[in-house]
Specification:
The protein contains seven helices and no strands. The chain is mainly alpha-helical and about 130 residues long.
């Protein structure tokens, strides 16, 4: 089973357990709803987030359930594994970097070699200007 098919099964099950029809999922278009529920769409994070909002669940739950279904790992086991990894990321300080990271940079980062070349050129330019 592909991840798209697993996502389809999860979305269908959650929708049906909420006594909703596909037409109740109004934040995404009809064609997209059909494609997601047939496992024919590679849903974006935005689409999953909108589906989760309409189903009144967290998008992380939808992703966890779809991954669990695809891998055959029970959801509670996957949740425990993720919790353990989250604790590890906290200890390593990774969560702090994620939460407090400044706004994303725009453009491509300057490679170290390019940065050194720019600094050398600037210093050489300063020397010849004297």
């Amino acid at each position: 089973m592909s991840l798209s098919e697993a996502l389809a099964a999860v979305v269908r099950a959650l929708r049906q357990s909420s006594n909703m029809t596909q037409d109740d999922l109004t934040l995404i278009g009809r064609s997209q709803r059909n494609r997601v529920e047939r496992g024919k769409a590679n849903a974006t994070m935005e689409t999953i987030s909108k589906i989760a909002e309409m189903l009144h669940v967290d998008s992380a739950l939808i992703i966890l359930l779809a991954n669990s279904l695809q891998s055959g790992e029970p959801a509670d086991v996957a949740l425990q594994r993720i919790s353990t990894k989250l604790d590890s990321l906290k200890r390593e300080g990774a969560l702090e970097r994620i939460i407090y990271e400044p706004e994303p940079r725009t453009g491509r980062p300057v490679a170290r070699d390019a940065q050194k070349a720019l600094e050398r050129a600037a210093s050489e330019s300063a020397v010849t200007a004297e």
